[in-house]
Amino acid sequence: MLKTILIIGTGSFFGGVLRYLVSLYVQNNVLSAFPWGTFIVNILGSLLIGFLFGLSERLSFFDYEWRLFLAVGFCGSFTTFSTFANENLALLKEGSFFLFAVYTGMTIFLGLLAVFSGSLISKTF
After folding, report:
1. Distance (Å, whole) CA 28 – CA 55
2. Considering the entire predicted model, what is its pTM?
3. Taking the CB of the first residue and of the last residue of the chain, which one, N or C, has fewer CB atoms within 10 A?
């Protein structure tokens, strides 16, 4: 059990740090009320988890521990539903109903499309 916690925790550390750096970079380079940083990490994380699970279906080197590290740990902390929900609430409080609808719709639609695309891309390996 301790080994599993350490595997997930290590993946979470790297995913969380990378999420912070990517979000910070995007938010510092894009002037917009739209939460591009969170949007980009959530779509990239969806693409990555689709790719990883697609590979794990075909290749035997993705054992249970690697899936825990990459999917639960890294992707779980790289993407962020709680920040997505909080940013949507902030948009609603500001009265930015159009941005709220665009952000929610694009995140859900493109997130699903990214998981599907990642799975398709994994089949080329």
Report:
1. 34
2. 0.91
3. N
Name the DSSP class of 79: S
- The token duo for 17 is 């740090």
Q: Tell me how far apart the alpha carbons of residues 22 and 18 are, in angstroms, rounded to a whole number.
A: 6
Q: Are 16 and 74 in contact (CB under 8 A)?
A: no
The total number of structural domains in the chain stands at 1
Mean pLDDT by 10 residues, the chain (125 residues): 96 97 94 93 96 86 87 95 95 97 98 97 89
Q: What residues make up the domain containing 61?
A: 2-122
Separation CA 118–CA 53 (nearest Å): 9
What whole-number distance in Å separates Cα of residue 37 and Cα of residue 22?
7
| Phi/psi-derived region of residue 95, left when phi > 0, alpha when psi is between -120 and 50, beta in every other case | left
